[in-house]
Design brief:
9 strands, 14 helices, 4-stranded antiparallel beta sheet, alpha+beta, rod-shaped, 579 residues, 5-stranded mixed beta sheet
């Protein structure tokens, strides 16, 4: 089993956290609507809400069907609204084509309204008309608005990625131009060295050969000196060809070390190590990973040059030291397809040549090096996008280390850009579903600094909470606007009701009405223990008097009589009127 790194754990837990978040938002709407008393069939709605949260986790694999099913469930169960809103935002954000996205959002909104209208009489407010009102309230909050926000976010992410890719292409073009200028300059230097030095060395070699033949009979004791001059000139010509190969274009090698199909492979490195062993150096090769025969030619050439130059320096300065050549070819195994693609893009070839300290005092060097060999290696490796280090060890030895991207395409190319940046809303031509979404695209919290990601999560959380509040308010308005079921005038008290029931209809005693009735009321019925004189709709004023209602109760507080009688009104004359 491959252990899961700590950096991958947040990515694995993010979908679970998102599902729990939208589930809690749905529970909030469920609790708020239930508290207001507008929640028919609570157990059924709770079960549907749990099923909707489970469907939300599948939105990346089947984005279109999941959104449509959630919209259909939101009609009879408004608590599913926050789950549908989050799914609409996520799906719209990853869809690049505008027409399929608009059709999907329109279909989801229409399906929500239809389901709310159909289920209104049984699972909703009680009638199809008010079910239609609930659907019209939920469709914008659960589908339209989140879909528009997701569309804007997705377009912004795609625009940023396009700008980033354009900037990367411009940077690669600049590096390529610099590399070509450097190659042209090296070619010019190589041509000048060939014209100025090569011809002179050829003449020296030719004259040395003639001198050797002339001294063979005349002065045999000087012949060896002529032979030494000729051999030295030959070695100088060979080294000049090697220098011309370094200064020439990096895309092709010249001289005796021209590139072949085996250059830089394991067999080639083993041959270099064997040659050093034959020269009396104790060399050990440690190779990790597969062979490099499938890697690009610049990578293999760089590996060959690093090992060869490092072993050449060992031959010159530390021939009796122990040497270790290490080649590591990364082949990371990923648990997911996304991780495998990232691992392939980040694969590297690491080469390290380390020699220990000499067992005795340092040997004198007849001709110290100029350091151009290590400088040339550094330039070659950095042109491929790699890193190079060469330094003495505290123990007295020396270490040369290089790391080259395994997929470098050439000078200035850097790692191969085989795929676009996996930011929010990434779309691939091969991975699109039926509605044009990428099932492997990351979630809204896309890559970026931790601060930006936290701000985006908080913004989306507050937006979902606001939409949930709007859903609750809209549902409350629709349920409050429906009729209570009673029609016509309010009912009146009836004979036989208790005093509490009569008082429930607003029939309460009024002291002013009782005073007006005193002395003008008819006799009370037999068995009466008390009467109530209310000031309500039964007390009417007419010219010359008042119509008063009297409610009489027996000892058991039962209503036994309702009487209405007129009481004359008293009117004082104004001071200027004559009696």
């Amino acid at each position: 089993m491959v252990p899961i790194s700590s950096s991958r754990r947040p990515a694995r837990l993010r979908p679970v956290a998102q599902t729990l978040g939208v589930g809690l938002a749905g529970l909030g709407v469920y609790a708020a609507v239930g508290h207001l008393g507008y929640l028919p069939h609570p157990p059924f709605q709770l079960v549907v809400l749990a099923a909707a949260a489970g469907l939300f986790a599948l939105r990346r694999r089947w984005p279109g069907p999941v959104l449509l099913v959630l919209a259909a469930l939101t009609g009879p169960v408004p608590a599913v609204g926050p789950v549908t809103a989050a799914a609409a935002y996520s799906v719209a954000r990853r869809m690049a084509r505008p027409r399929p996205r608009a059709r999907l959002l329109a279909a989801a909104g229409a399906l929500l309204v239809v389901c709310a209208t159909v289920t209104g009489p049984r699972l909703g407010p009680g009638s199809a008309a008010y079910g239609l009102a609930v659907g019209l309230v939920l469709a914008p909050a659960a589908v339209i608005v989140p879909g528009l926000v997701g569309t804007a976010q997705g377009q912004q992410g795609r625009l940023l990625r396009a700008l980033r890719e354009r900037g990367d292409a411009a940077e690669r073009a600049r590096r390529l131009a610099d590399s070509e200028a450097r190659i042209h300059e090296r070619s010019r230097i190589a041509a000048e060295m060939h014209d100025l030095v090569g011809h002179r060395l050829s003449l020296v070699s030719l004259h040395a050969g003639g001198l050797e033949l002339a001294l063979e009979g005349a002065a045999p004791q000087l012949r060896e000196e002529a032979v030494l001059v000729r051999r030295t000139t030959r070695d100088a010509m060979r080294e000049l060809r090697q220098v011309l190969g370094v200064l020439g274009p990096l895309a092709r090698d010249t001289g005796p070390d021209a590139l072949t199909h085996a250059t830089g492979t394991r067999a080639d490195i083993e041959a270099l190590v064997a040659q050093s062993r034959d020269g009396g150096i104790a060399v050990r090769l440690d190779w990790t990973g597969p062979d490099l025969d499938a890697r690009p030619a610049p990578v293999r050439r760089a590996v060959h040059r690093v090992v060869r130059e490092a072993l050449t320096n060992v031959h010159r300065y530390a021939a009796d030291a122990h040497v270790t050549v290490t080649v590591e070819h990364d082949t990371a195994v990923a648990a997911t397809d996304e991780a495998a693609t990232a691992a392939a893009d980040g694969a590297r070839v690491r080469v390290t040549v380390r020699n220990g300290a000499r067992p005795g005092p340092p040997a004198p060097v007849e001709e110290p090096g100029t350091g151009r060999g290590l400088t040339g290696l550094r330039e070659r490796v950095e042109l491929l996008g790699g890193t190079f280090e060469a330094a003495a060890l505290p123990s007295g030895g020396f270490r040369v280390a290089a790391a080259v991207p395994a997929e470098s395409a050439g000078p200035g190319g850097g790692p191969a850009a085989r795929r676009a940046d996996d930011g929010p809303g990434t779309l691939t031509a091969a991975g699109q579903g039926a509605i044009g979404t990428d099932p492997t695209a990351p979630e809204p919290a896309g890559p970026g600094p931790d601060g930006r990601r936290t701000a985006e999560v908080l913004t989306l959380g507050f937006g979902l909470a606001a939409l949930s509040a709007l859903m609750v308010i809209g549902i409350a308005f629709v349920y409050a606007a429906q009729p209570s079921g009673r029609s016509g005038p309010p009912p009146l008290p009836r004979i036989g009701m208790t005093y509490a029931e009569v008082a429930g209809y607003g029939v309460l005693d009024n002291a002013a009405v009782r005073a007006a009735a005193t002395g003008h009321e008819p006799p009370r019925p037999a068995g009466t223990t008390g009467c109530v004189y209310p000031f309500n709709g039964a007390t009417e004023r007419h010219p010359g008097g008042l119509l008063i209602a009297r409610y009489c109760f027996d000892a058991a507080q039962r209503l036994i009589a309702i009487d209405r009688f007129d009481v004359p009104s008293v009117r004082d004359a104004t001071p200027w009127e004559t009696p």
